[in-house]
Amino acid sequence: MNKAAKKYTIGEITVGQKASFKAGITEKTISHFAELTGDHSPIHVNEEFARKTRFRSRVAHGLLAYSYVSTLVGMYLPGENALILDHSAKYLKPVKAGDILMITGNVRSKNDISGKIDIVIAITNQKNETVITGTVGVLVNPPAKRGVTMKELKKKAVNLDFKGKVVLVTGASRGIGEATAKLFAHHGADVIVNYRLGKKDADRVVKDIVSSKKRAVALKADVSDKDEVSKMISKALKEFGKIDILVNNAMSDAIPVEFEKLEWEDIQKDIDVAVKGAFNCTKAVLPVMEKNGYGKVVNITTVYTNSAPPAGFTKYVTAKTALLGLTRSLAVEYASKNIFFNVVSPGFTDTDLGAHIPEWFKKKMAMDVPLKRNAEPIDTANVVLLMASSYTDYVVGSQMLVCGGSVMA
């Protein structure tokens, strides 16, 4: 059974903190490393050759012993949130088959803003002889945000009834999409969890929903691909017979890029997912909604369509602004058919999409909000459900800001 990795965050790590473990070097280990790397130098793999050298027997690859530094970092200090950025090493004594190594790391320094720690490495053998010393720089990533569970939703959810309704949420494997899908399920809807790459995450969302005795299915589709969307809708209709509500939430990423480094292809990618994706999904479900004489489409944009965005968000805000225009245009065209188009625009939300943003910047953003906190996915999900409910059957082409008061309209 694999041992679980530690989960230290940058805030939990202290200078002087240590971790260590033992690892044995065997003939088999050396042979496997040679196969893995392609380094079949005879001093490592040929006993007869090695006996004629000053070492008198096979010597383990230097990087074989040093590779356990990756184990130290990934499993012990800091653990699963780690990514090695840089390293240096000195090889003081040869390591041979039969050696028992003690790999020790000691945190020399840490930077809470950048999330980087520097670890001093010492590897000793069973004779307490130091065989390798070095340092390794490690990025301690923020832990992945855990999605809200069905049990937690019961404590926070408003009382809305979506029994008998079928909802398609795009980009629903994590973050706002996940919370929205689960909240709809909590209120009785059958849910289609769309994903593009995150199959395991989508399956996890569906499993959580089904465990609460609700109906859900995960369907893969790149929403920017018309044919994939068509296949997804066909499968959804075969499973549930109709689609009453569409939530266009899918987005490629929210990584800031300076304008001088942008290519049009970068902007086009965001437009393809946010705007073309919403276009494709809407095109596919509208005939079903028209046949039923009723439908709700809620598009997720951003509060930065109404305010000054942070630097570097040109491609993201451009795509979301275009989606806002698409929503208002369709709202006018389809209101008379009892199909409602509206927009929900969250401010900065603490999801995996913003995992690259330093903690100090997140805290600063929170302080700029009158509520003094950043949004959670459930905050946006609550408003999405309101806009998809019968309570908003006289709301057409409107934009609901979910930003804690940072923008007031």
Describe this structure as you would to a colleague:
The chain is α/β, with parallel strands linked by helices and 409 residues long. The protein has two domains: 18-140, Hotdog Thioesterase (Thiol Ester Dehydrase, Chain A, Roll), CATH 3.10.129; 150-402, NAD(P)-binding Rossmann-like Domain (Rossmann fold), CATH 3.40.50. Helices cover 37% and strands 21% of the residues. It has 13 helices and twelve strands. The strands form two sheets. The protein has a seven-stranded parallel β-sheet with strand order 8-7-6-9-10-11-12, with helices on both faces. β6 (166-169), α7 and β7 (190-195) form a beta-alpha-beta unit. The radius of gyration is 27 Å and the shape is elongated.
**At the first level of CATH, what is the class of the largest domain?**
Alpha Beta
Mean pLDDT, to the nearest integer, reads 91
Assign the structural class, choosing from mainly alpha, mainly beta, alpha/beta, alpha+beta, or little secondary structure: alpha/beta
- Order of strands across the main sheet: 8-7-6-9-10-11-12
CATH architecture annotation name of the largest domain: 3-Layer(aba) Sandwich
Q: From the alpha-carbon coordinates, what is the Rg to the nearest angstrom?
A: 27 Å
